[in-house]
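Lab manual, section 2.4: Encoding a predicted structure.

Procedure: take the sequence of the chain (118 residues), apply the prediction step described in section 2.3, and record the output as C-alpha cells. A sample record is shown.
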Amino acid sequence: MGKTSQKMQRVNGEVQRELSRIINMEIKDPRIAPMTSVTAVEVTPDLKYCKAFISVLGDDEAAKDTIDGLRSANGYIRRELARTVNLRNTPEITFVLDNSISYGIEMSKKIDEIVNNE
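Recorded output:
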C-alpha cells in the first residue's frame, strides 16, 4: 500500500465512519453479527472502488454470514453512503473479512499461557 495523501486519508476516514454507522444502526439483516466493526477503508483515488475491512467478533460461521449479509445489502449501503457522504462518485464497495483483531486476541492468549506456565 503506497503513501496516501491527506485528502484520501480524510475520504477514507469519512467513508469508514459512515459505513460503521450504516452497518450498526440501519441494516436489520439477521445474518449480520451485532459485534461487527469496520476496521479500515481504502478508497481508490478516482473514488470508484472501495475496500472495506470488516471484523466480526464470534466464530467463523458468524463472520461468513456477516460478509454474505453485507454483500446482499451492498446496494442499500452504497445508496445510503451516497446520500450522507458528498463525493463526486460513490465507490463500489467490496467487503473483506479482517481477522487481525481475532488474531491479536489469540496471540495474547498464547502469550498469557506461556507467562503463566513459567
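Check your result against the sample. The domain at 6-117 is CATH 3.30.300.20 (GMP Synthetase; Chain A, domain 3).
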